[in-house]
Amino acid sequence: MLFIRSFVFNILFYVNLTGLVLFGVPLLFMGRFGVFKLARAWAWSSLWLLDKICGVKIEIRGREKIPQGGFIIAPKHQSIWETFVLTTQMPDFSYVLKRELTWIPFFGWYLIRAEQMAIDRGSGRTALKQIATSAKAFIAQGRQVFIFPEGTRRAVDAPPQYKFGVAQIYAETGATCLPAALNAGLFWPRRSFLRKPGTVVLEFLDPIPPGMTKAAFLRELENRIETATNRLVAEARAKDPSL
Fold first, then answer.
1. Residue 209 lies in a domain
2. Which residue stretches of the chain are H helix?
3. Which domain holds residue 97?
4. Residue 170 · residue 222 · CB < 8 Å
5. What is the Cα–Cα distance from 94 to 206, expressed in whole angstroms?
6. 95-119 per-position pLDDT tens digit
7. For labelling, which of 11, 27, 47, 156 has a CA lying 20 to 30 Å from the CA of 212?
8. Contact, 65 vs 204, CB < 8 A?
9. pLDDT digits (tens, 9 = 90+) for 22-45
10. pTM higher than 0.85, yes or no?
11. pLDDT tens string 82-96
């Protein structure tokens, strides 16, 4: 039954995404906020499908900790789930993403129109400088800049691999950083076909104010995210040891 539910969901998930991308083209003429409407429609419809087909619920904790205006948000990254769910929680966001995504027909157009930060990851220090410059400008406009501090999805229980880039951006922008923990990888594992029933928890943690050294910031960020993520994973496994 788990296989069948996952199979049906995966088909409808991509059919839904394709339909929204194709029929949402007029929203491109409404600027980034038009694209945000489409992104949130995708997020909420995907969550509805997850709930009704796979029995996957959602719980958001710590909304009261979200700062006003522009800041950096650094979430744990375990699956595709958080990439679309986070769009429902921030009013004016920009993701740091690889430039190649903007080359995808239709989908890439939306990324460009939404003014996301597409970078060439192969350019090393140049890419990092580009991110810092763009992030500083966006934060000054009151926008929220998403940076996955490990750079890519990590499996649940995998040793953390935090990149120094997030500390560099924190230092150069002089912005507050909002860490976020989650347990999405238990229910939507990376590189897995299955979608397991249960409650995915996304928790916003206490913001880290500007002014720390890069090394101290990175240690604090990793400690907060990993401690909270481990707690959320343990909570879920206490309810369902099969996870």
1. yes
2. 2-23, 31-49, 81-85, 107-113, 125-140, 165-173, 214-239
3. 56-239
4. no
5. 21
6. 888 788 888 888 888 999 999 888 7
7. 156
8. yes
9. 999 999 998 899 999 999 999 999
10. yes
11. 999 999 999 999 988
30 found inside a domain = no
Q: Is the separation of the CB atoms in 176 and 209 below 8 Å? A: yes
- Rounded to whole angstroms, the Cα distance separating 114 from 27 reads 10
CA distance 234 to 137: 39
Poorest-pLDDT segment among 71-75, 107-111, 170-174? 107-111
What are the phi and psi torsion angles at 122 (to 5°)? -80, -5
Report yes or no on 117 lying in a domain: yes
**Count: domains in the chain:** 1
* Sign of the CA dihedral with 49 first, then 196, 190, and 85 last: positive
CA distances from 210 to 71, 175, 176, 178, 196 (A): 10, 5, 5, 11, 38
Q: 38 to each of 28, 30, 226, how far by Cα in Å?
A: 10, 11, 32
Count of residues making up the chain:
243
Q: Give Cα 116 to chain centroid, integer Å.
A: 13
- Cα–chain-centroid distance for residue 139? 17
Residue 63 included in any domain: yes
Structure tokens at 35: 């694209």
